[in-house]
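Please check these two lines:
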Amino acid sequence: MRSIRSVLTHLGLALSLSAVSLATHADELRIGFQKSSFNLIVLKSRGTLETKLGAGTSVRWVEFPAGPQLLEALNAGSVDFGMTGDTPPIFAQSAGSRLVYVGFEPPKPQASALLIPKNSAIKTLADLKGKRVAIQKGSSSHGFLLRLLDKAGLKWEDIQPQYLAPADARAAFERGAVDAWAIWDPYYAAAEKSGSAKVLLTAEGISPNQTFYLANRDFAKANAPLLNTVFEELTRNSDYIEQHPKDTAHLLSAYVGLDQATFEQVLARRPSYRVSWLDDKTIVEQQRLADRLTQAGLIPKAVTVADIVVRH
C-alpha cells in the first residue's frame, strides 16, 4: 500500500512537502469505533497499535452507538479516525463535515438484514407499505432500506420510518412497537440468537454494504505518517483475523458480550477484512448511493464522493 503521506500530498490534501516532512506524530490518537467495527475492536484488544506507536503517541478508543454519531465527533475534532458503513459519510459530506475517506474493506452484503418478528404477517417487500420500520438515521441501514424500497417499487413516503439507535430499535422491535428493523451485525446476529426475529432479506444483490475508514481532514493533513502506521497495523490485524477466526471470535465475544459461537457465525458472513485504498469501482458505487439519497430528498445537498477521497 502506497503511503498516506504520498497520496495526500499528490491530492493536495496535505500540508506542503516541507511541512509534512517536519510534522511529528500527535501526542494522542483518538479512534472512534462501534460494536460493528470488528477489525478495530480486535486491534484494540490485542494492543498491537499501542506497541507499534510506543510511548510517543497514546491511543484513546472512543465507542459510539453508530456511524452518524461517530462522524459528528470526527467533524467536531473529538476523534481523529474511525470506521463506518457506506451511508454515514454521504450524510456527513452533504452536511459539510470535514472528513476524508482513507480506506475500505471488501463488501459484506450478508452482514445486514431486514428483520421482521417471527409471527409477522409481512411476506414480501411490498408488504412494507404503511409499516413502521426501525432504522438508525443516516446509518448504513438507511441506505439499505432505501434500496429495498426501490426493489419493491415503493417510495420512502410509503413507509413510516422510526429513527432509533440500535439498542432502542431492538427494544422497540421486541415489544412490537415497530413492524420491521433494518440492521447490521452484531445486532442482527443478536436478534437472530434471541429467537424473536426472522430475516426477510439480507443486502445480498441489493447493496454491497461497504465499510469505510475515515479521518478528520485537518488531522489527516497534519499526521499522514501516523495514519500510515495505523494502516500498516490494520493490515497485519486483518491477517490475524483471517488466520485465527476462533481466537478472533473469542476476543469479540469478550468485548461485545455475545457468545463465541455467534461471533463465529458473524465472521463467516464477512470473509475478509483486508483494508485497501478506494478504487474506481468503489467510488462509483458510493456515488450511486449518494445520488439516490439526493433523489429521495434524504440529504440536504448533492455531493461528489471523489472530492474527499484519499486514493492510490
Q: What stands out?
A: The domain at 109-202 is CATH 3.40.190.10 (D-Maltodextrin-Binding Protein; domain 2).
